[in-house]
């Protein structure tokens, strides 16, 4: 680590390990002699190509004025960035109240206003959405779950529908733990997978997961407000429900996968995501029996 930092012209006085995310990266706060700090992400051995791509995505976004940390360089497996501090919106919400969502939506507006087609990452397509749902099938559905054919047909169709939506730049994991209050505005971390995707996708994440879900209790009212702010095309309500259903089923699968890999802390978020997944599926008009199989089956997989 110190050799990579030195290669980037960074002389570290000390390093402190930070909590990680759902990836295999390790994070460190780098303390410099002048009292300032940086954040260093250390990728696993053999992941140089991933580190290079993620750094390229960060440089791309910073050059376009996106609300993300300033890139400070990359050397091999080490990617160094501006330090946004520790005040994510999950911690800040006690003081901000619903204004946390207002600030998050302004950050979302910056992403949605950015042309995405030159990104180093490929846009979402139906196959990508379906692969995400395959994780849900593997980890959330019991092998003998009923209505197997109906489940497969529903998930296939849902993936195709999302790929037909109008596209904007999506962060792809736009929730309160990835949004930091810094110098009076919200900036996003965990941005390396941003790509072109459905216009309503990030809002479905913001209002359906973690702290934002509890704050935006009137999901429909907040969606109306944001749709007007971001100028979404007609038909956005149906698109929002489709994104909410796919995203929440995907998240259920991801949380269960992480728990199976020895990271059970994610299970604390499962009940809320499961409830909101059921709500979105019901509002889409999904048959009640199919909703039960899709959402309730995961209870027995904990």
Molecular structure report:
It is a single chain. Strands 1-2-3-5-4 form a five-stranded antiparallel sheet. Strands 6-9 form a two-stranded antiparallel sheet. By secondary structure, it is α+β, with helices and mostly antiparallel strands. The protein is 49% helix and 15% strand. A hairpin with a 7-residue loop joins strand 1 (12-18) and strand 2 (26-32). The mean pLDDT is 92. The chain has helices at residues 2-7, 48-63, 89-96, 99-112, 126-140, 148-163, 201-208, 210-215, 219-230, 236-260, 270-283, 288-296, and strands at residues 12-18, 26-32, 37-42, 71-75, 78-82, 167-170, 179-182, 185-188, 195-198. The longest helix is centred in the last third of the chain and has 25 residues, at 236-260. It has two domains: 2-82, 2-Layer Sandwich (Phosphorylase Kinase, domain 1), CATH 3.30.200.20; 89-301, Aminoglycoside 3'-phosphotransferase, Chain: A, domain 2.
Provide the descriptors you would attach to this structure in a database record.
single chain, 302 residues, alpha+beta, Phosphorylase Kinase, domain 1, Aminoglycoside 3'-phosphotransferase, Chain: A, domain 2, 2 domains, five-stranded antiparallel beta sheet, two-stranded antiparallel ribbon
